[in-house]
Write a structure and sequence with these properties.
Layout: H1 3-23, E1 30-39, E2 43-44, E3 47-48, E4 54-63, E5 66-75, E6 80-94, E7 97-108, E8 114-123, E9 130-136, E10 142-154, E11 159-171, E12 186-200, E13 205-216, H2 219-228, E14 236-246
Antiparallel strand pairs: 1-4, 1-14, 2-3, 4-5, 5-6, 6-7, 7-8, 8-9, 9-10, 10-11, 11-12, 12-13, 13-14
């Protein structure tokens, strides 16, 4: 399917799902939020895909256990959008265990669109450990795993310090790049540490400045990151601010 046709299909599907969610609002508890990230770089799974500054708006709607997210990336130098993602999700809880399942459509400019399904699990305990397995059944034809931990420290009744760390691995996913011989690979991918301070302006609006550092965990990933980075670096320190409106 051509890229423009895929994007058109994704937009139509998004609109249909939004209407279904809104129509079911009376029968099921429904909430929504709109957020905007303004960041120095667009970093995705360790790949530095732009260091001219980006704006990333996101719309989330949840109805019961179901959710939909519409996300896009816009380059601040060219003032052009180059990616739009649609995520459909379902989540449930079993005691302290949270499980999530979902589908992601990546509509890309300058690259072939692709699709993933994922399953995630997290446990309500100290450091909130979680693991997510992504399966690309389109252009990537492979998998990707992310394991993470995080902890939030209350500063006062309106603000908290949030610390996080993650590690990932690639499993023959071509979208994640190739090794020095030009073939897909299975290896550790990137590690990332992050810190942010979330502040509730009121019960509807919050702001969150953030910083993060991402780095390769294998020579295969190092090769990918250096090839994609505008300056040939294999690691990236980036940051910005998030503004969220809940309604």
């Amino acid at each position: 399917m051509a890229g423009s046709m895929k994007k058109g299909f994704m937009l139509v599907m998004s609109a249909v799902i939004m209407m279904i969610v809104v129509a079911s609002a009376e029968a099921t508890e429904t909430s929504a939020s709109f957020s905007v990230d303004v960041l120095s770089n667009y970093v995705w799974r360790g790949q530095n895909l732009g260091d001219d500054g980006v704006v990333q708006p996101s719309l989330d709607v949840t109805s019961g256990n179901f959710g939909i997210n519409y996300w896009s990336n816009q380059d601040m130098e060219t003032n052009e959008g180059n990616e739009t993602d649609l995520t459909l999700s379902y989540s449930t809880e079993i005691d302290k265990l949270s499980l999530g399942f979902g589908y992601i459509y990546y509509a890309l400019d300058g690259a072939e669109d692709t699709q993933e399904v994922y399953v995630s699990a997290s446990y309500d305990m100290f450091m909130s450990p979680s693991i997510t397995l992504y399966g690309d059944f389109d252009e990537g034809d492979g998998a990707f795993i992310v394991a993470s931990i995080g902890h939030s420290i209350g500063i006062n009744d309106k603000a908290s310090l949030n610390l996080g760390a993650s590690a990932s691995a690639n499993i023959d996913n071509k979208v994640m790049g190739t090794d020095s011989s030009g073939k897909e690979f299975t290896d550790f991918y990137n590690g990332e540490v992050s810190a942010s301070v979330s502040y509730a302006v009121n019960d509807k609006i919050s702001i969150e400045p953030k910083v993060a550092y991402s780095f390769p965990l294998s020579s295969d990933a190092k090769n990918v990151f250096e090839g994609l980075d505008p300056k040939g670096h294999d690691d990236v320190f980036y940051g910005g601010i998030n503004l969220t409106l809940s309604f």
